[in-house]
Structures are given as C-alpha cells and as structure tokens.
Amino acid sequence: MKQSNLNKLNQIKGFINNFLFKSIPVLLILFLATTVIAQPGKGRQSWLSNYEIAQQLLKKSSYYNATIYLEKALDLKGNNDVDLLYLLADTYEKARNYKSAALNYEFVLRNDSDNKYINARWHYANMLKQSGEYEKAIKEFNIVSSVMNDDIQKVLIQNAIEGCEMGMSGKEANIISLEILDIINTNYSEFAPMPLEGGEIIYSTLKSNELILPEEEMIYSKIFKTTVEKNGDLLEEGTPMTDIINKKGIHNGHGTYTDNGKKFYFTRCPSQENNLADCKIFVTTLRNEEWTEPRRLGVNINPDESSNSTPFFIDGKLFFSSNRKGGMGGMDIWVSYLQSDGSFARASNLGRYINSPGDEITPFYNSKDRLLYFSSNGHSGYGGFDIFKAAGTIGNWMVPENLFQPINTPADDMYFSLDETMEKGYFSSNRVGIEAIDNETCCDDIFTVQLNPSAQMIELEGIVYDSKDPLKIPMDDARVELFEINEKGDLDLISSVVTFNQQGYKFRLNNKKKYVIRGSKENHTVKEETILPSGRNNIRKDLGIHKNCIEISGLVFGNDSKSKQILEGATVAINEINDKGELVEITKITTTKEGYKLCAPINKNIRIIASKDGYLTDSYDINTNGDYDKIRYDLELKKEELNLTYQIDNILYDFNSSILRSASKDELNNILRLLQLNPNIILEIGSHTDSKGSVEYNVSLSERRAQSVVEYLIGSGIPSHRLQAKGYGESKPIARNKNKDGTDNPEGRQLNRRTEFKIVGKVSNVN
After folding, report:
1. In what helix (H) or strand (E) does residue 124 lie, and over which residues does it extend?
2. Is the distance from CB of 405 to CB of 171 less than 8 angstroms?
3. 3-state SS string over 43-108?
4. Which three-class secondary structure state does DSSP give residue 535?
5. Which residue has the higher pLDDT, 625 or 208?
6. Dihedral of CA 395/398/400/405: which sign?
7. In the chain, pLDDT over 70 holds for what percent of residues?
8. Are 63 and 94 in contact (CB under 8 A)?
9. Is the pLDDT reported for residue 657 higher than 80?
10. Contact call for residues 534 and 515 (beta carbons, < 8 A)
C-alpha cells in the first residue's frame, strides 16, 4: 500500500457494527475517522494516562486506536490486570480482530480468580469460532453449557456447536465460482450490494471523494452506483448517488427500489457516542427526473424505541430488520405491505422458523423461486453471521438452510442478493483475504458468486405424530432433523426444527443427494427414515413416534419437625418393582433447588426413593400406565435425630375405642415403609387424648391406641424390638381444650387427639 494512502487510512480506525456484540445494532459496516487525541509526552508514562486516552477513543468508537493505548496501559500496570485484559479483549472483539480478542479472553480466564467476568468464556468461545478454531471452540462452548441454566442461551450454544461441527465437516456449496469485486472494493468497507434491472448495482461504502482533514471527526457512509457489462464484469468504479439521498453528516446505506423504480427506500443512521445508533428507514420519490427530499417512514416501520434498517422491497412488500418489541431475539426480520394510500400496514414478524434468539438481518426475497435470503448469528453457522435461505411465503416458511462454504466463513457474511437471472449473487464479507487496514478481518468487501442451477431442489414435508394415534394428529415440541449422507456414509446435520401449533416440517432437498430424516421428542422413541430423492417430485414423509417413558419431577423438602425447606444434595432414584417384588434401580439424580426430574419407563410399577445423610430415607410407589406425560410428586425427608417428634396424620379410631379404622391404613403403610427403608431406627409410637374423661382413663386409652399401631406394624413384618408404644393421655396438649372464658374448644381438642412418632434409639449390627 502506498504511504500516502496508509497515512490517510490510519485516520479511519473506528468501527460500527454493534449488533455483533451489544444491544442496539447500527447495521452499517463502517469505519470512523477519529479526532486526533493528545499523545502522552516523552518517557515512560503512567498506565492511567494511556487508559484515559483509550477511554476517549472508545467513546468515539475508535476501537483500533483504543487497542494501542490499552496495550500500553496493560504493559505499564501489569499484564495480569484482569480489568484491563477484559476491556482489551472486548475492544478487539468490537474491532473484529478475532484472534487477538480470543487471546486476551484466554488471559482473562487465566487471571480472573474471583470469577468477575462470568461471560468471558462465552466470548472466548465465539472468538475461537470466528477464528476458525472449531475444536477448541466446541470445548469452550461445552463448558459454558454445563453451567448455563437459561434455555434460550442453551439453544444459542447448541447452534454454535453445530456450526463448528459443520465447519469441520468440509461440506461445500454447489457453486461454479466465487470472486472478490476488486474494481469497487477499497481499504474502506463496501457492503449492501443490490443488483438492479438494466445492468446496474448500488452498494454502500465509506469511500470518500472529499479531503479528510485531521480535525474532521469522521467520514460517513454513502450509497454508490455502478454498471455491469453484459458479460457480468463491472464496467467502472462506482459513483455516489445524489446528495439528496447521501445527506452530509449522517450515515446512509442499504438502498432498494420499488418495482417500477419510482421510489427508493434506504437507511439513515445518525452517529452516536459509543456505538449506539437509532437507524430509521427513509423513502424518496422520483419526480420530473429528480429525487424528492427523503422522508422517514411512519411508526408501522419506524417505532421510536427501535432501530430499523436494511429494507428490501418487492411485489408490494417491504422486508426489513428491527429490534422492536415482540420479536424472537435481538434483530428480527419483519415485513409490511404497501397500502393503496402509499403508507405501510403494521409490520409482522416472519416467525420463529426465520428468526432465532440471536440476530437476523439483511433480507432479500427471490419471488421467482420463493426463497428468502438473510444473515443470522442465531442459527447454526460457520462464524458470526452466516447467509441462509428459506423457502416459502409470508406465514409459511420452511426451515432455513445454511449456504455453506465458501459462501460462509468463520467471519461475517451478509447482504446476500441476486441479479435478475437469479443465478449470480452478491454479498459482503470480512473474511481473511480482504484488503485490510488493521487486521485480516477488520473490513468488508463485496464478493460475487455464480450459483449452479443444475441441482434441482425438491420439497420434503410431513408431520410428527403419535404412532398409536389413529387420527395422526400432528405432535408439538417434536424435533425433526435433516441429515445429508456424505461420501463416507456418515451423517452431516443440515437443518433442524421443533414442531409447534400442530404444524409439520418442511425442508428443501437436492435431488442428487441422499438424506436421513429423524423425528424425536423428549421421553419418546426416535424415528428415522432414509430419503432418496429422484426426479422433480416433492416428497411427503410422516414420522410416527410414541412415548417410551414418563417424566417424574418434584421437590425434596427437609423437615426438622418444626419447619421444612427445600433440600439440595439429596439422592432421588427410580426403581422398577419386578414380578418378584424386587427393586431394580433404573436411574438416579442429585437434587438442586429446582428439585429433581427423572424419566421412568411406561407400564411399570415404580418406586421412587429419596435419601440424604442425616435424614430418614423415604419413597413412594406409582404405576406408569401411560395416562400422563408427566407426574409431579414432592418428597419430604424427616430429620434423623433422637427425640424429634413428628405427627402422624389420619390415624383414626372409633369413639372411645382403640380399634384402628380402615381409613388409617394408608398412613400406617407410610410409617411401615419408613421403617423398612431405615432398618436401623427404633421408633416410639405416642398417642395423645384431649381432656375429656379422667386422667387415668385417658392414659389407658392412649396406651391402647399406641399399642394398636405397634401391633399393626409388627404384623406387617417389623421386629418388635424396633417399636415402643407410649400413652401420654392428656398430659401434652398442643392446643387449648377450653377457651379462656371456660367454653369448650372443639378445634383444640381435635388437635390434641393425635398420634406421633419419634426416634428413640438405633439398632446395631443391621445388615
């Protein structure tokens, strides 16, 4: 590069692409010329002076310059300063210097002994992925997943892992050629190519024909236009569109014409401090060969609280990207219909087949083949943003398909569009190999790709249903995965979808390849079918699965006779009771504050056993007859401590009798099971009465009642030396038998008529 150009380009060191890393995206791939900052004087300066200069640069989004001063500050303060390391890593990430960002996130993880930056490993994994270090990235994503409880984040992690695996598979797109457009690409960023009818292309760039002076704060994005020759080559360098569109002092980009060429929609983004933006979509009308003053579209397209960008207009519909309320994640793709009065209807979200918990941007719709092209960092991809396509129409989309390498790379690949032949595509990328100012992935260039039309695409669709359901009602929450059978006979995951709202699945297949379709659902069987497309006929394949286990979940409480609270660290095991009455352990889990969740086989007699040191083991029995998908049962473990008293509810006798009622048997069987599960404890069974009758009579009655419980337990197989009967009569009331005014208190008497147990000893030498 010539020295004069280098000096000029050294002023362009900022970066706006905030949707890659933070909350509000600009959706322009730009570089900013920063104000000259006073340099530290000669000699060894303090780390603080370099840090303060870096902070000034960060407010201007001048990330490349900021890294210089942060490196100096880190060198002066100490290379293990975790705060400076994290700020440096974050700044390199914003500058899209993936390798340097990964290196510094690794340093953060080594030095962050207090776990201050809990999201550092997530960023580290992503930077490894965008550096193409897929094996290392998978390892880090798995570590993040192991400590992550958020379901949405887990989806993004799984998609990231699948993207890494796809990157290692070597799968390639079916294309004829891919080239960089050298004639319009510069050391500045070029992006948002849009081919037009008649052989023209518009695109956005920061290339400036004006002199850039040191005191100027930045140069701004403009929309350029160039011409394509009949052989497909670009005829000349682009020239900027009219100043009516390219308003000075503001970023302008992402142009799209209406079908008749009379209206032009585009994005304007006022530059704001520290990478924030409030992008809005504007329109200008061609009148008497002149473009009118652009006006901002109404609130159906541009709500005040959202950033809205990358419009694409076709057949009376405006597709665009927005982070407005009601979306699926960050940036989503929306669509609005042009109405007869020239306004746009209320925008609707394209739905969760298209939009993910991440960001979806830069839509382009090919109405001829009914294919939506867009970029996403939330679906499974090779890098940050990958280009995807999804077949369908508004409200009826198929699962998006990755365009694969070399179209997609570990870097960011966006703004895909097609010319009128629908065989030549254009897109932007900051992949390794572009002409870069600062690092090998800092900037964006425009590429062209020649698609291969020979591969006929057909549709595969179907539903997932319960194979035991004669009506074959479509099943929700089933996962359908599409695998391609590669040359080695291995399965490469192509796409997946989760069914909802009693809808099925749809995929597009290459009729020259072989596939496997797999349907599955939690606690159900898995169904696989091999798909061998041939000819041009679409294929329907319904997948029948059925339930193979029942989810059993609940909380485990600890009870010390006075209070109970959720018990963590207990063991909950599922045991099958076989035909001989023996227990066969199937699985077990250690409880958390969320309790336990296990899967039991259907049509079995099951015993759930919960245990923890210091507590009495307990259990319950169920039959998994398949009537339910899920069963919830909370367990309560009593504290194993001498002389702690626990009340036994529902021990019932006839009036003035010690004969147990049959209704007492269920509760007595719970005590029986408690003794069986804890063979080392000795229990005292204590019975109490109210104050009616003489003291002597009440003691005698309570002793007889306690003894009847003991005899029931002995008769059920519990050795007599493990049981003691004690009658307390009316001596230990837990409520008033009479009110303070001397009147009778029936409620209190009822509470006093009770049976309790407590551990009074341990049996030695229990096998």
Report:
1. helix 120-130
2. yes
3. CCCCHHHHHHHHHHHHHCCCHHHHHHHHHHHHHHHCCCCHHHHHHHHHHHHHCCCHHHHHHHHHHH
4. coil
5. 625
6. negative
7. 89
8. yes
9. no
10. no
Q: Which one-letter amino acid corresponds to residue 417?
A: S
The crossing angle, in degrees rounded to 10, of helices 47-59 and 63-77 is: 160
- What is the number of helices (H) and of strands (E) in the chain? 11, 45
| Long-range Cβ pairs for the range 130-136 (8 Å, 24+) | 130/98, 130/383, 130/384, 130/410, 130/411, 130/441, 131/98, 131/99, 131/102, 131/410, 132/167, 132/409, 132/410, 133/102, 134/164, 134/165, 134/167, 134/168, 135/164, 135/168
Cβ distance 496 to 479 under 8 Å? yes
Q: Which pairing describes strands 317-322 and 332-337: parallel, antiparallel, or unpaired?
A: antiparallel
Q: Can you tell me the mean pLDDT for 413-435?
A: 91
Q: DSSP code of 760?
A: E
SS3 assignment, position 702 = helix
The residues pairing with 575 across neighbouring beta strands, listed in sequence order, are 585, 607
Question: pLDDT (tens digit, 9 = 90+) per residue, 690-749?
Answer: 888 899 998 998 999 899 999 999 999 999 999 999 999 999 998 899 998 989 898 888
Lowest mean pLDDT among 183-192, 442-451, 577-586, 612-621: 183-192
Residue 631 is which amino acid?
Answer: I
- The neighbour count for residue 405, using CB atoms within 10 Å, is 21
Average pLDDT over residues 494-517: 87
Indicate the residue type of 26: V
Would you give the DSSP letter of residue 663?
G
Q: How far apart are the first and last CA of the chain?
A: 85
What is the value of pTM for the model shown? 0.65
- Return the ∠ at Cα 248 (arms to 247 and 253), rounded to 5°: 50
Average pLDDT on 14-34 reads 34
Q: Which DSSP string corresponds to 576-644?
A: EE-TTS-EEEEEEEE-BTTBEEEEEESSSEEEEEEE-TTB--EEEEEE--SS-SEEE--EEEEB--TT-
For residue 735, count other CB atoms closer than 10 A to its CB: 13
Give burial (CB, 10 Å; 0-12/13-18/19+) of 647. Answer: middle
Q: Which residue type occupies 326? A: G
pLDDT digits (tens, 9 = 90+) for 174-200: 899 999 988 888 777 899 999 998 788
Query: In this predicted structure, what is the pLDDT of residue 227?
Result: 85
Choice between 59 and 72, residue whose per-residue pLDDT is larger? 72
Residue type, 32: L
